[in-house]
Write a structure and sequence with these properties.
binds zinc ion, five-stranded parallel β-sheet, alpha/beta, 5 strands, globular
Amino acid sequence: MKLEILKNALLKIKTRFLDLLFPIECLGCGGENDWLCQECLAKIKYKKIEQCVVCKETTVFGQTHTSCREKTALDGMIVAAEWEDKILQEAIHKYKYNFVQGLAEPLSKILIQKIKRLEQLALWQGQKIVLMPVPLHKKRYHWRGFNQAALLAARVAKYFGWETQDLVLKRERYTKPQAKLKKEERERNMVGAFGASAITSEHASETVVILVDDVVTTGATMNECANILKANGVKTVWGLALARG
Ligand SMILES: [Zn+2]
Ligand SMILES: [Zn+2]
């Protein structure tokens, strides 16, 4: 317990120190007091065309094509903005690598705006929605002091009145390269990696889980998470990210 208090105190000192090193000014226009001011936030280039997570071709709402489903456990992927947006790129970089937690607020607004613009809400109507941050490796968590995906997920969930849950991470033992394993071994390997206690709800089959991360690249990690969730009875798993890098 005492150790926890000490840890929190140190974390606060670290945050203050970083605030001094990086005074708060808008990454877009240099204005004071905001990491991303209203005007610059409004200029973010939102994605106009939704793409399939597997083949990157156009698809309705970001749903995975039926023909691409055997390659992923993700039912769909929502990517909020264009990776080419320089301000967004810098914001994500500062958020992730300079530990600027203050960026969680404007960045989560981008996710919220994107979801509001989409028809997804109609697609998910009547179902329980649970947001789940993509878990971070423990070593990285200790180094960074926060899970950047969790801060985003918490704000988005609060806005829409959704729930958040953590996917229990048991990734300390590194997983063997998936490619070298047979399908069955592969599934076992991943259960070991992420733990199976993700969703215990008896309503798992009526739940839409949305995995949240700052940036998605190949979607492999989200796919791993989705596999575990589906093995635990979750019917629908989507991904949500700020950009696809
Ligand atoms: Zn600005
Ligand atoms: Zn596809």
